[in-house]
Amino acid sequence: MNLPLIAISANSPPNRNNMTENFPGYFISFEGIDGAGKSTHIDAFCKLMQECYPKHEVVVTREPGGTPLGEQLRGLLLDAPMNLETEALLMFAARREHLAQVIEPALAAGKIVISDRFTDASFAYQGGGRGLSIAKLNDLERWVQGRENGTLLQPNLTILFDLPGEVAEARRSKVRAPDKFEKMDLNFFEKVRQEYLRRAKEDPQRFHLVDATQTPEAIWDGLQALKINF
Ligand code: TYD
Question: Residues 103-119: what's their mean pLDDT?
Fold first, then answer.
């Protein structure tokens, strides 16, 4: 199994097609706009992976968060108003800790890591939604996910729950009190969605798109039929 680690040089945008280093584990991220329904399926998907790969421990985690420090940062990020660049830097600071403490050791030990969000969320929310420059996000990504040999650590597979902003908005209004991001308007979520789709188009081998307007049963059938290249 190859973990897609992507060759980069200091001043060029990441080359997303070059696998240069192997880990024995497998890394999956779940993504989508708030209200897309990823949380409904993530636990069942983890159980399914554990059944399919009984010799590999499945580690379930989330971003922002996944470590004691990361969870503290999550509390701030989801509630406290802050400058956009501060927000992006804290997202990536939490991610650096998450990689160092949880993701990299687990992948090195041959485990399957399933993360509820990863870097695509920073591109979608801070970049697409809030308008932070993609060049700055590329720099942060390179800094935080770059490795000594000049490669960039990414998930092997990203499952993107895609649906129109207004459908997600209607679903969100039925749940608990909204956090800072969930309070944003339709226009914000449409921009988040478009950036997710742009990333998916740029890296079709990594992304699996789920039409999240389907019923939960139909979505689950699709997830069960997913081909995992591990
Ligand atoms: P979410 O994953 O939706 O958790 P819950 O289901 O408990 O609401 O919440 C995390 C929020 O953080 C979500 O609105 C997206 C946002 N976020 C970013 O803006 N940038 C990031 O890099 C990450 C990881 C998350």
Answer: 97
In a domain, 40, yes or no: yes
Residue 43, both tokens: 């636990």
Do 8 and 14 form a contact (C-beta atoms < 8 A)? yes
Q: Which of 29, 31, 33, 34 to mutate to test the pocket of ligand 1 (most atoms within 8 A of CB)?
A: 34
Instruction: Return the CATH number at 168.
Output: 3.40.50.300
Is residue 117 in contact with ligand 1, taking CB distance under 6 Å?
Answer: yes
State how many domains the chain has.
1
Classify residue 229: in a domain, yes or no: no
Is the CB of residue 91 below 6 angstroms from any atom belonging to ligand 1? Answer: yes
Q: What is the pLDDT of residues 65-100, one digit of tens each?
A: 999 999 999 999 999 999 999 999 999 999 999 999
Q: Six-digit token pair at 24? A: 């024995």
Model confidence, pTM = 0.91
The confidence score (pLDDT) of residue 23 equals: 87
- Region class of 66: left (phi > 0), else alpha (psi between -120 and 50), else beta: left
| Ligand 1 pocket member 123 (CB < 6 A) | no
Assess if residue 230 is contained within a domain.
no
73 lines ligand 1 (CB under 6 A): no
DSSP-derived secondary structure letter, 24: S
